[in-house]
Design brief:
single chain; alpha/beta; Rossmann fold; 7-stranded mixed beta sheet; binds S-adenosylmethionine
Length: 242
């Protein structure tokens, strides 16, 4: 695993409770994360996850305002731009190097005119009146996932949708002790929780938060209608509405 390239610094950060930021990792981690999650997005995002959301496919096809928050190298952002040419799509990430690479990926794919990427944190990305805000495998990494969800809630149109894609998990440790859950707990400890500990309030949700905890967080952020829209072996797909 790419995080192993910094094993001593990460071990020290865990021992001292100081955290280890996403941006401090070797770039191989960013590349590996993109390759790992991209397969699931390719197989499911446009064919089943978007259609599972109430009315979102039609809005995107007609031309919607969309934000992909914590977009990394833009694997999901590019897919949305490719599939919904009428929509205006912006990818945001706090990590400038990932944003640069996402822009390169967009240019390589000939999609640069259809979307944009900006450096911004989840708790204060710009724009209002979004039809759709999506977070793919990133909310649990954030030091303040509640603050991020509250900001997303405020940035949406009254009938907008928050698409939250998280690593698949059940609600208890015992129920996650399977090959996928064990892998996620490992990555979560050295990458996701370590990043979440870098800033207050250091929530450390972890990649195996589970549907109940995620639903509570979304209700606390002001969403009134929250439901599981879909799932795969690797992802939980949650729809949250204002
Ligand atoms: C596991 S990666 C997922 C990247 C991308 N969504 C994907 O699925 O390939 C988590 C991403 O969250 C970003 N991130 C972490 N904390 C953030 C924050 N507070 N605001 C915005 N992005 C953040 C990281 O920079 C990283 O790109």
């Amino acid at each position: 695993m790419a995080a192993g390239k910094n094993v001593e610094r990460i071990t020290d950060a865990i021992r001292t409770n100081t955290g280890f930021g996403w941006h401090e990792h070797d770039p191989a981690l960013f590349e590996g994360t993109e390759r790992f999650f991209r397969q699931g997005y390719l197989a499911n995002l446009v064919s089943s996850w978007i259609p599972a959301l109430d009315g979102v496919d039609a809005k995107l096809a007609a031309g919607a305002k969309v934000a992909d928050v914590g977009c990394g190298h833009g694997a999901s952002t590019l897919l949305l731009a490719e599939s919904y040419p009428m929509s205006k799509i912006t990818g945001f990430d706090y990590h400038d190097r990932s944003v640069d690479l996402a822009r390169t990926r967009a240019a390589e794919a000939g999609l640069a005119a259809r979307l944009s990427f900006e450096v911004a944190a989840a708790a204060d990305f710009p724009g209002t009146e979004y039809d759709l805000v999506a977070v793919f495998d990133a909310l649990h990494d954030m030091p303040d996932p509640l603050g991020a969800a509250q900001h997303i809630r405020q940035s949406l149109k009254p009938d907008g949708t928050f698409l939250l894609v998280e690593p698949y998990a059940r609600d208890t440790v015992e129920d996650n002790l399977n090959p996928v859950g064990r892998q996620y707990y490992t990555a979560s400890t050295v990458v996701c929780v370590a990043h979440s500990m870098t800033e207050e309030p250091r929530t450390a949700l972890g990649a195996q938060a589970g549907e109940t905890r995620l639903t509570e967080l979304l209700h606390d952020a002001g969403f009134t209608r929250v439901r599981r829209a879909a799932e795969t072996s690797f992802n939980l797909i949650i729809e949250a509405r204002p």
